[in-house]
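Lecture 7 notes: from sequence to structure.

We start with a single chain of 89 residues. Read the sequence below before looking at the structure.
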Amino acid sequence: MGQDFVVQVIYQGVILILLLSLPAVGVGLLVGFIISLFQAVTQIQEQTLTFVPKVIVVLLMVAFTSPWMISLMVDFTSSLWAGIPGMVR
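Now the structure, written as tokens:
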């Protein structure tokens, strides 16, 4: 197990984290932009107006994409477990 292997595993882990967080962060960003635009047009400056819809939408997105996220995490974990004999050598 060399430095290249460790860097590759860390790289794959970081890419996986970014890929898994992308749907929730993207939808949260989009909803936040829409609500900010609505607040700018109507001049309503209420903090809960931005917080509550974003939380609800992000939770719904996580619930909707959770099977996909779990399958990616299981595949990554399985590949790490399968690679343990090669790491020891």
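The mean pLDDT is 91. Keep this in mind for problem set 3.
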